Amino acid sequence: MNRTVWIVVGVVVFALGLLNIVLGMTLLPPMAEAQEKGVIAGWWLVWCVIALSAMSAVALGGFLLAAGVGKVPETAD
């Protein structure tokens, strides 16, 4: 595959991970409001899922960028 494609897809994956965090901050209520309503357990669960998917995006994006630069032997031309 073309190296440029690997790099572009890696940047897109990083952007999707960042978008995931921004959407979580926008759509979820603040922690104090969740505690007041008594839904703090669900609030923590959702933020854990957001954090895991953001970490996965960082790992996948890093691999794709490394593949694009030629640091991964299996993908080197």
Structure explained in plain terms:
With 77 residues, the protein is mainly α. The chain has one domain (3-75). Helices cover 81% and strands 0% of the residues. It has helices at 3-27, 31-37, 40-69. Helix 1 (3-27) runs antiparallel to helix 3 (40-69). The termini are close together. The model has no long low-confidence stretch (mean pLDDT 92).
Could you give a quick summary of the protein structure above?
The chain is mainly alpha-helical and 77 residues long. It has one domain (3-75).
Give the SSE map:
Layout (H helix, E strand, L loop, with lengths): L2 H25 L3 H7 L2 H30 L8
Helix pairs in contact: 1-3
Strand content: under 5%
The biggest beta sheet is recorded as: none
Low-confidence stretches: none
Report the span from N to C terminus: 9 Å
Q: Which geometry do the CA atoms define?
A: elongated
The residue fraction in helices comes out at over 70%
Spell the H/E element sequence: HHH
How many separate structural domains? Answer: 1
**Structural class estimated from helices and strands:** mainly alpha
Radius of gyration: 17 Å
Number of strands: 0
Global mean pLDDT:
92
Q: Please count the helical segments.
A: 3
